[in-house]
Amino acid sequence: MQVNLFDFWPRILEATHETLLMVSIALVLATLIGLPLGVALVVTRDNGLMENKIVFNVLNGVVNIFRSIPFIILLVAILPLTRLLVGTSIGTAAATVPLVLFSGPYIARLIESSLLDVNKGVIEAAQSMGATNWQIIYRVLLPEALSTIALNLTIASIGLVGASAMAGFVGGGGLGDLAISYGYQRFETDIMIVTVILLIIIVQAFQAVGNYLSKKLRRL
Q1: Which of 97, 111, 122, 140 has the fewest Cβ atoms within 10 angstroms?
Q2: What CATH architecture applies to the domain 7-217?
Q3: How is the chain classified by DSSP, letter by letter?
Q4: Is 1 a residue whose pLDDT tops 60?
Q5: Could you tell me the pLDDT band of residue 164, with boundaries at 50, 70 and 90?
């Protein structure tokens, strides 16, 4: 039975809200994981502020393992963990768990890249003034890298939008689920087109906000 697009708009708006909710929660939680992990990767590496080869190699290995697993496989592989944490394996809450585990290590790499771009002379100047390692991290490294961190988190958020759409294959909710359930399985082309347009709008909005924040946070 053909779906009337006009009557279907409440469901489309609900799916849009689910996508934004999934991406927002996953981005916050993944950043809480990725930020300290990225900092640890920078300060424990060779010639880092707290050089520790064992810690670096362990963290580096863990990040590489998680980053090498395609999202759709991770999504299915951790279904028991997802059910344990949220009590279900379908819906937006269930989709958030693999989104966080998928994005946390990715954000760690982005944070690592941002911090490694900080001018070494600024760090050396702080050390010459007697700043402790923790003071350098919080008052030099992170503030100096804020602009690029904002851009990199924008990249991560856009990746999360795409991953949230893939979660629709296992009933993850959101626009991806809508596109698969109606646009693909029921051949509702107009619904597929609308969901694609909405995903493009969301991505453009995230990019615009990220560019604005990066510009505001850039140090002269």
Answers
A1: 122
A2: Orthogonal Bundle (1.10)
A3: -PPPHHHHHHHHHHHHHHHHHHHHHHHHHHHHHHHHHHHHHHHSSTT-TT--HHHHHHHHHHHHHHHTS-HHHHHHHTHHHHHHHHS-SSSHHHHHHHHHHHHHHHHHHHHHHHHHTS-HHHHHHHHHTT--HHHHIIIIIHHHHHHHHHHHHHHHHHHHHHHHHHGGGGT--HHHHHIIIIIITS--HHHHHHHHHHHHHHHHHHHHHHHHHHHHH---
A4: no
A5: confident
